[in-house]
Design a protein that fits this description.
Chains A, B: InterPro entries: SLC26A/SulP_dom, SLC26A/SulP_fam, STAS_dom, STAS_dom_sf. The structure is a homodimer of 575-residue chains. Chain A is mostly helical and 575 residues long. In chain A, 62% of the residues lie in helices and 6% in strands. In chain A, the strands form two sheets. Chain A has a six-stranded mixed beta sheet. In chain A, strands 1-2 form a two-stranded antiparallel sheet.
Chain lengths: 575, 575
């Protein structure tokens, strides 16, 4: 039972669910539902899927996450970046608008869900750490630009395509002649209105004397107003006969039971994108969940989150959806609206199910331009170049990683972009550790503390070379250290003792062990003793049984101070 | 001039060349030439090239290395592993025996030479460090097995093919019916004889009363004897008419002037193999050079070695050869024979040139089985599984890397094998650093030294949590540390001060900086102060201007002792 409760957090919070929690969750659900209807339609369009897929993807996944997830406030469903990744991955195996495209999207959700659940069971949540924060920030910014650009065609009313910025811009430019003036007017007006809703509406309403609470709710309903007004406008004026693209007929139905395609060649070509999408989705989701949990001093279990998100994606795969994850905007709204438990998500799911059955005829005349405006306004808030400045000031290596991620995402597509970001980060890290910082240290007078001779006023002796090695020793830097020490000893001919201060050596791998054995032999031939000091427990445990220790010409000291006191020549004391 | 001398070491040692050095170099050259003739023919066969390519590849490259290389004893030419890599790479773009095959081999040498020279000029020799010693050992062992297996067809006299162990064995088994009995007899006899030459001949000759020096020279000449005897045998008995494959007509010529093919599609498909081959060849060469240089207290400059090897490969590309590198066997023979300067190599080249012009008709009847025996006996000495045992005892991560390299090289081919070895090593290293060891430390009584409370008898106080972080902080482990500290603080409610002892933190990247800022904020909310101690110079330089330092709730101390003395509650002193 304890075990089951671990894997299904609902059994914990469900037992103490109160009437008060219920009413708070209910209010949050209503607000989130109103916000989600246009957003779900818009993201489905971004993913290249029919609008109902966005609503379906918000129903079963929310329910499943409520059962398996650990975050109290996270709202799972279609999000911008994952929708873009879906369009990019599925676009490579099927044509938009075909049945194969929708099936491939289900397969992608299925593979992603399976992968996340497996990671969760194997407790491999730490893999997400390979995406460094600067890389994520760069990727999100570049994705925001890509997404906004991809929606310009709906605002202009032209047909354009492409998965990278140059492709999209080129395609847009070559189709500029086809601009539909009515679409453009609706699109620009909707975009301008939504920007105002986001920035200027709340202060405006407050200045008109509304209560903050009411102003808040009205602001949240802004996108719904845009949807309503433009739909009615197109319906009354018959602009859809003048080239304004509309959503059209959407089936009135609860989420259907669907089967992802499991054809081996389809699975093979979607597997890598599914893994990438899963990791990116997970990273986005967990960072939102942790931010919100921290505000209420709750804890998130990353491995259980993997299972929760995985279950949500499996749910999407079998109910006509597409890959989902925990979204920032919807989760924050849920949290701010007072959601207390995952039950709020369940109520949202019910609200959306009602919308799917009852409201879809009402959006027949909804213009695609309005949805595009919704997306553009939402994603432009993701675009944030400040990470470039911050990393430039702090660390050039991080800056290079961000820059590479942004440029490659924009020019080579989302998958190449994020994969390159990870590879560049790892390579730069290895490069840094391949040239270890080695400081010659001496005793800080009057203490037992030893610091760099170039930075501090310290005591040394020409016959003793004390070196603090500032890196774990492993294959990438094993030889470098050996070369460095040998050339130092060759230059300083008075040296009789070399003390390697291992306080910063956290591991010694086999290649480094061999290099140290070699160093010991060479120093012995030169009449120099090799000592080690401050070797840490875990490192000493491994070294104990080796040839290095049994043949070490010098000793191993607990502290650098002991080593120094033992080997330095003592001043002769006059009796 | 100084600069030129740096890039052409010949200008240094050439000025002080003496008559005595000349005679020593001459003797070494004669011995090496005798050994190289059968070896060059055999390795060319292994690479799938006509026998003369092996001799040509030993002439210009040796001369060029003599000009640009830094090792006094290294002998450059065809070697087993590089020949195998050549066969694998070129076999993917052309059919053996065609003109395209030979041209592709030239192209491979050209690309490899160019790549090495560029690395050398950019001083990127450290890249070779990414191949850890266990991975190299595993790769060499697996290559030895692959090479020996690939030669079995010549011993059996059947036609078989394949680039992996299962392919080769399967192909051999399915052709077993075609065994040529005469070939088999010659092959087995030659192999047995050569094994005896290697293991038993020298003791035998010594027991017969020969001087060690003479016994040594005769042992070196063993392969030549095998070549001579089997050639004469086939010539006299006419066995070549009974299915015994022979070398046949070899052009009598100095190395011809050739042009590598530079067709873009050829270059594109050979580029990656060329890079891999260059790095493996360089690693083999530099480790031989360093071993020999250490014996005479000479120094090897890795970056200059890249230029020397690169020049040798460019030379091979334009004189009918194929990729070359510094070989272990030939270099050791050269060294033991008393070679003093690279001039010994030049004399060897002259000897081989004479052989190419004058001796090739004599090997018309040389059986391929004899060459195969030469290769098998040479490479089986490379097979050494002891690395598996050594790494198993010392470090499981290294063991996994060796095992993966051996298994993947045998089953998936040389390129996949070595690439996987590198990737597995890097991943395991990152995995280890992703879960940093964090020790709670206390004061070793009577000293200013702080060690792990679980391993040493130390003094602590419930209100102070001193943690020594045993890893550089970067994106892979940034969050892990934060989680760990927060859960420790949540468990120990008396804690008022957290001191992070940064003696083992060699770098803090941007992701980790953000995690620390976050930690500082969260601890502040819990009423706990965060202090840092023993922050190293390079780390402090970067942290100085950050939000973390300006908002740190605690202080930064030079030593852990200072920190402890400052923050621990003092016992009240009774007056």
């Amino acid at each position: 039972m304890q075990r089951l409760r671990h894997y299904m957090p609902i059994l914990q919070w469900g037992r103490s669910y109160t009437r008060e929690s219920f009413s708070n969750d209910m209010i949050a659900a209503v607000i989130v539902t109103i916000m989600l209807i246009p957003q779900s339609l818009a993201y489905a369009m971004l993913a290249g899927l029919p609008p109902e897929a966005g609503i379906y993807a918000s129903i079963a996944p929310i329910l499943l996450y409520a059962v398996f997830g650990t975050s109290r406030a996270l709202a799972v469903g279609p999000v911008a970046v994952v929708s873009l990744l879906t369009a990019s991955a599925v676009g490579q195996v099927a044509e938009q608008g075909t049945a194969g495209y929708a099936v491939a999207a289900l397969t992608l959700a299925f593979l992603s869900g399976g992968f996340l659940v497996i990671l969760g069971i194997l407790r491999l949540g730490f893999l997400a750490n390979f995406l460094s924060h600067p890389v994520i920030a760069g990727f999100i910014t570049a994705s925001g630009i890509l997404i906004a650009t991809s929606q310009l065609k709906h605002i202009l009313g032209v047909s354009a395509h492409g998965h990278t910025l140059p492709e999209m811009l080129g395609s847009l430019l070559s189709h500029l002649g086809q601009i539909n003036i009515w679409t453009l007017l609706i699109g620009v007006a909707a975009t301008a209105f939504l920007f105002w809703v986001r920035k200027g509406m709340k202060p405006f309403l407050l200045s008109k004397g509304l209560t903050p609470k009411l102003a808040d709710v009205l602001t949240k309903a802004g996108p719904v107003a845009a949807v309503f007004v433009t739909t009615v406008l197109v319906w009354m004026t018959g602009l859809s006969d003048h080239g304004v693209k509309i959503v059209g007929a959407v089936p009135q139905s609860l989420p259907p039971l669907t089967m992802p395609g499991l054809d081996p060649s389809l699975v093979k070509s979607l597997l890598l994108p599914a893994i990438l999408l899963s990791i990116i989705g997970f990273v986005e989701s967990i960072s939102v969940a942790q931010t919100l949990a921290a505000k209420k001093r709750q804890r998130i279990d990353p491995d259980q989150e993997l299972i929760g998100l995985g279950a949500a994606n499996l749910g999407a795969a079998f109910t006509g959806g597409y890959p989902v994850t925990g979204g920032f905007a919807r989760s924050v709204v849920n949290f701010d609206a007072g959601a207390e438990t995952p039950a709020a998500g369940a109520f949202t799911a019910i609200g959306l199910a009602i919308a799917a059955v009852a409201l879809t005829p009402l959006i027949y005349y909804l213009p695609a331009a309005t949805l595009a405006a919704t997306i553009i306004v939402a994603v432009l808030s993701l675009v944030d170049f400040s990470m470039l400045g911050k990393t430039w000031r702090y660390s050039k290596a991080d800056f290079i990683a961000v820059m590479a991620t942004i440029l490659l995402t924009l020019t080579m597509g989302v998958e190449v972009g994020v994969a390159s970001g990870v590879i560049v980060s790892v390579m730069l890290h290895l490069y840094k550790t391949s040239r270890p910082h080695v400081a010659e240290v001496g005793q800080v007078p009057g203490t037992q503390h030893f610091r760099n001779i170039n930075r501090h006023d310290v005591e040394t002796h020409p016959s003793v070379l004390s070196l603090r090695v500032d890196e774990s020793l492993y294959f990438v830097n094993a030889r470098v250290l050996e070369d460095l020490i040998l050339s130092r000893v060759t230059d300083g001919c008075a040296i009789r003792h070399v003390i390697l201060m291992f306080s910063a050596v956290n591991a010694v791998d086999f290649s480094a062990l061999e290099a140290l054995e070699d160093l010991n032999d060479r120093l012995r031939d030169m009449g120099v003793k090799l000592h080690l000091s401050e070797v840490k427990g875990p490192v000493m445990d491994k070294l104990r049984a080796t040839h290095l220790i049994s043949h070490l010409t010098g000793q191993i000291f607990l502290s650098q101070y002991d080593a120094w006191e033992t080997v330095r020549p003592k001043p002769t004391i006059a009796v």
